[in-house]
Design brief:
It is built from 13 helices and 34 strands. By secondary structure, the chain is an alpha+beta fold.
Length: 662
């Protein structure tokens, strides 16, 4: 694939030119050779034991490590049955995936340098053309290879790298589509050039290695339907849209066991996946049906009230297969009273330390629980064609049921609403709601004077002529969510490079969603044409914490050790719940001392944060070398529950960031 494309004649000619240049401009233009380092390029990986693994895979190429000193970049590949004939390192040295060669088989790459076997090449093409200049051939002191270990060092000056530069790197064994690091379809991991000497005086300063890939963290990313358990893309949320008929099949019997079985609650709990819950009274489909219980319909009619109206949209506005259903009579006093009891039952069921439900969307009102009944006018001029949506005096009663039931439970479940109304931020419980946009990615539905974003920021006139207030910048303290517009076609359009994905990124920056679903890319095969954009969006959505720097005394003395941790949130949103940040002193897998800091992750919006605290240490602690680690603790399990975008993850989920000696 690579050297085979170079003719022998062309290689010979280029080598002659290179020798002539070296003769004319010797010796200052010669490639700098590797100098003494703590890593010896000898095929023995023992001196790499303290270096964190950058990425792993199965097959022949199994792990990749990278480190450096003041002069050289070092890389180590380990595996089983590695090719001793052909292998190649790929380096993006400007940290820009839009420049350089786009190597196939991974996400976008942007390669400036390729080390194929022991020959270093610099890319000279337009991004797609195969055009490389041979720069140097590494001697045996800089490149060693056997069937289990490949070790190399390249001068930083050759690669034009300096302290704080970030690179991306990968390895391909024998031109294989699968035997590579990282695995096929993933994006190249990042490594940041750190200072060669971490200690200054009596203080140790460490810059942990950053990972550039999206993380599969709680409360962010994709939220596909809970009814399926087979999704190619990783996710930590699922969506459970539950009809009232499912919830309460007979009067007073809330059949949570059936709901949870249908939506695989036990399975999702075992995977650490939380639920976005929505109660729906009207879910249009392709056949005549009702989504409120039959007993409720009969009771309403028995009291002399209309139960609602059956509809079958003939305008085509609702879309094929989603045009038939039953719109309840939201003004029914009996329906309102029973709805209050149903919402209380949901709140009581899920207000537990298990926290199966993370977010509750106020559905209840309108088609799909989306706060509208539409089309409003039929083909022959009929009014309220698919049902009557209630005025504020009625709809506010339904919203109040949620406020009364879920107020005070926000440490476990957070309440969200689709459209901005007064009760979303001003109510008798002091409860402020998050919001969700069910047509995310569609520009008119976002920006128009009736659009979702416009309404949240400026207020709006709703579909039945009522003026609704703004819920401006709600994401400063609450969570933003939603789902892609237009089913599979809309989602694909929103993720396709060009105007579609540009618009999606714009809406992400403006409305700061943490998750999207159920219409989401979770069901798309990994490694498809949209994968790079899927990863880019997932990384930016919600929070994305990177440990940038850790400092502490070089030697542990006394009964405490002060640790300063600098963290950057590269996502658009804060962490939704008040999970504690913990700093730890460890001996291997054992936490010998720890301290819960006062950091409040719900205030960590996009930007940088510094936490300084002291770990109390027993005076009887034995002399030796200890690890310092950082962890965000899941209160449900009392164990680390959130990944940082760094290497150094330990078996229990904490992140090793440094070492200290007593």
């Amino acid at each position: 694939m690579q050297l085979l494309k170079w003719s022998t004649k062309r290689l010979t000619l280029m080598w002659i030119v290179l020798v002539m240049l070296c003769t004319l401009f010797a010796p200052s233009t010669m490639i700098q050779q590797s100098q003494a380092a703590t890593i010896g390029v000898d095929g023995n990986a023992a001196d790499w034991s303290s270096i964190n693994t950058l990425t792993t895979n199965t097959g022949t190429a199994q792990s990749l490590k990278v480190t450096q000193n003041s002069t050289n970049l070092y890389a180590l590949v380990q595996g089983a049955g590695l090719s001793t004939a052909t292998g190649s390192f790929w380096l993006n040295t400007d940290n820009n995936t839009a420049t350089g060669y786009q190597a196939s088989g991974w996400g976008v790459t942007g390669i400036e340098w390729m080390l194929e076997n022991n020959t270093l090449y610099r890319y000279t093409g337009d991004g797609t053309s195969w055009s490389w200049n041979a720069i140097s051939t590494l001697p045996a002191s800089q490149f060693v290879r056997n069937s289990s270990t490949i070790e190399t060092s390249i001068p930083l000056s050759t690669l034009q790298l300096a302290v704080s530069n970030t690179i991306k790197i990968g390895y391909i064994d024998n031109n294989s589509a699968t035997n590579r690091l990282p695995a096929a379809s993933l994006i190249l991991p990042s490594y940041t050039i750190a200072t060669d000497t971490p200690s200054t005086g009596t203080t140790t300063v460490v810059t942990p290695t950053e990972l550039d890939s999206p993380l599969n963290n709680p409360f962010k990313g994709w939220s596909p339907s809970a009814k399926s358990t087979s999704y190619p893309q990783q996710h930590r949320l699922v969506y459970a849209g539950v009809t009232w008929k499912e919830l309460e099949p007979t009067k007073g019997n809330y059949d949570f066991a059936a709901i949870e079985a249908t939506n695989n609650f036990a399975y999702w709990k075992s995977k650490g996946v939380k639920v976005v819950f929505r109660l729906i009274l009207d879910s249009p489909s392709g056949s005549a049906h009702r989504d409120i219980p039959d007993w409720l319909v009969n009771d309403i009619v028995a009291q002399g009230e209309s139960a609602g109206v059956a509809y079958s949209d003939a305008t085509g506005g609702m879309g094929a297969g989603n045009n038939t259903g039953f719109s309840p009579n939201y003004s029914s006093t009996y329906l309102i009273a029973r709805h209050k009891l149903a919402i209380e039952a949901i709140a009581n069921r899920y207000n537990t330390n298990d926290r199966p439900v993370a977010f509750v969307q106020i559905g209840s009102l309108g088609h799909w629980g989306e706060f509208h009944t539409w089309p409003y006018v039929g083909p022959n001029g009929e009014t309220n064609y698919t049902g009557t949506f209630p005025v504020n005096a009625i709809s506010n009663q339904y919203v109040q049921h949620y406020i009364d039931a879920f107020a005070g439970k926000e440490d476990k479940m957070q309440l969200m609403i689709r459209r901005s109304i007064a009760l979303a931020k001003t109510n008798n419980k002091g409860l402020v709601m998050g919001m969700f946009n069910d047509v995310f990615g569609d520009k008119p539905s976002f920006d128009a004077d009736w659009g979702w974003y416009t309404g949240t920021q400026n207020g709006y006139w709703d579909d039945i002529g009522q003026q609704q207030p703004a819920h401006k910048d709600f994401w400063e303290t609450r969570i933003s969510g939603g789902e892609f517009y237009g089913g599979a076609s809309g989602m694909n359009a929103a993720l396709t490079t060009g105007a579609g994905f540009t618009e999606t990124l714009r809406q992400t920056e403006l409305s700061k969603p943490s998750w999207l679903g159920p219409n989401s890319p979770a069901s798309l095969a990994v490694g498809g044409t949209l994968q790079a954009n899927i990863d880019t969006l997932k990384k930016r959505m919600g929070y994305h914490f990177v440990i940038k720097e850790v400092s502490h005394p070089t030697t542990l003395t006394g009964t405490s050790v002060a640790v300063t941790v600098k963290v950057e949130n590269k996502g658009v949103q804060h962490f939704p719940f008040a999970w504690p940040l913990e700093i730890q002193l460890r001996k291997g897998d054992t936490v010998v001392a720890k301290k819960t800091t006062t950091a409040n992750l719900t205030t960590w919006k996009t930007g940088s944060y510094t936490v300084t605290d002291s770990i109390p240490v027993a005076s009887s602690l034995a002399a030796g070398t200890y690890d310092i680690a950082v962890a965000i603790i899941n209160p449900e399990t009392n164990t680390p529950g959130v990944d940082f975008a760094n290497t150094g993850k330990l078996t229990d989920g904490a992140f090793k960031v440094s070492t200290i000696t007593k």
